[in-house]
């Protein structure tokens, strides 16, 4: 018994030592807004008091394209598409609860259902009756789930290396994702978020290494440490997986474009084929030598495919 107690004390002391040596403090929301909420960023308050960061770019009377980012990312992942599409389309992107400059929300709900609800609330406040909807990774699952629940509101669906159809992750799951699912150990992540773990995660997800800049790493690192975000992230990773998307996939009947990186080691390309097989009439494009975020890695090709799809799909 004494050895067990001693072992526990050693582990506790080691954990305290790690926190003391490597702790990275929270960053005040106001500091991050001053740094990152540059034009055309704006904020919208939802019915529950959540303050959502969004960007609304392009002609007001153009066809609307709403874009939803992935896990631990932000609306900035869609800027390459916005720059290429905002002449013909009204491109709207926003930070999901627990992400970006939206950060922690009052009700503390970071479930897929909550993210679908927030998507609807954003669209409602912008008076969008019908619109094209796209999402990457976790955001792709949210987009697909929204299309299942509100098929009359989605004109076109775009799934970019989307979650929701695969039972397991690939062979390069970022360390931060793995640690977030380990009880006790994940509590250290409330205080310790080294820049190196962000760099490692981006390198795991991205094949086109030339797009990984210091500014990109810093933005992910900064936004991950906004006050309340680390606790929100842990709460999200502790939620059970929902099977609702797969159970209702047959409800998706609108034109659907599936884009995927052939070398996505986070969500393998097998999931792309699962989506294509499940959604009748969908179009699948696989990009060689591309990873988890084609909207940034092959921005020209993927944006052109989206423009053609929205105009002709």
Structural shape: globular
Helix-strand sequence: HHEEEHEHEHEHHHHHEHEHH
What's the arrangement of strands in the largest beta sheet? 1-2-4-3-5-6-7-8
State which percent range the strand residues make up. 15-25%
The biggest sheet, with number of strands, parallel, antiparallel or mixed sense and barrel status, is: 8 strands, mixed
Mean pLDDT: 89
| Helical residues, percent | 40-55%
Distance between the termini: 68 Å
Number of helices: 13
> Structural class of the helices, strands and pairings?
alpha/beta
Low-pLDDT runs: 5-22
Output the radius of gyration. 20 Å
* Count of extended strands: 8
Question: In words, what does this structure look like?
Answer:
The chain is an alpha/beta fold. The protein has helices at 2-22, 29-36, 79-85, 112-125, 138-149, 175-179, 195-205, 214-224, 229-237, 244-247, 270-278, 294-297, 299-312; strands at 41-45, 51-57, 64-68, 90-94, 131-137, 154-162, 256-261, 283-287. It is built from 13 helices and eight strands. It has an eight-stranded mixed β-sheet with strand order 1-2-4-3-5-6-7-8, with helices on both faces. Helix 3 packs across helix 13, helix 4 crosses helix 5 and helix 7 (195-205) crosses helix 8 (214-224). It is globular, with a radius of gyration of 20 Å.
């Amino acid at each position: 018994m004494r050895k067990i107690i001693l072992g526990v004390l050693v582990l506790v002391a080691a954990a305290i030592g790690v926190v003391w040596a490597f702790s990275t403090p929270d960053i005040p929301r106001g500091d991050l807004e001053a740094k990152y909420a540059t034009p055309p960023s704006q904020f919208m308050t939802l019915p529950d008091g959540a303050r959502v960061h969004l960007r609304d770019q392009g002609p007001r009377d153009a066809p609307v394209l709403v874009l939803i980012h992935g896990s631990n990312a932000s609306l900035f992942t869609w800027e390459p598409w916005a720059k290429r599409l905002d002449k013909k389309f009204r491109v709207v992107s926003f930070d999901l609860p627990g992400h970006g400059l939206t950060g922690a929300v009052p009700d503390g709900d970071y479930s897929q259902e909550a993210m679908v609800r927030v998507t609807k609330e954003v669209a409602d406040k912008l008076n969008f009756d019908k619109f094209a909807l796209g999402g990457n990774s976790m955001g792709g699952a949210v987009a697909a789930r929204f299309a299942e629940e509100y098929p009359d509101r989605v004109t076109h669906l775009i799934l970019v290396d989307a979650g929701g159809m695969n039972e397991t992750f690939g062979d390069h799951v970022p360390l931060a994702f793995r640690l977030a699912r380990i009880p006790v150990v994940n509590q250290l992540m409330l205080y310790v978020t080294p820049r190196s773990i962000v760099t490692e995660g981006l390198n795991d997800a991205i094949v086109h290494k030339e797009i990984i800049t210091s500014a990109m790493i810093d933005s992910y690192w900064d936004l991950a440490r906004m006050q309340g975000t680390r606790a929100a992230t842990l709460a999200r990773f502790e939620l059970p997986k929902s099977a609702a998307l797969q159970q209702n996939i047959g409800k998706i009947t609108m034109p659907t474009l599936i884009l995927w990186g052939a070398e996505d080691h986070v969500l393998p390309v097998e999931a792309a084929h699962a989506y294509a097989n499940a959604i009748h009439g969908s179009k699948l494009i696989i990009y060689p030598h591309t990873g988890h975020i084609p909207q940034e890695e092959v921005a020209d090709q993927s944006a052109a495919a989206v423009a053609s799809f929205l105009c002709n799909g």
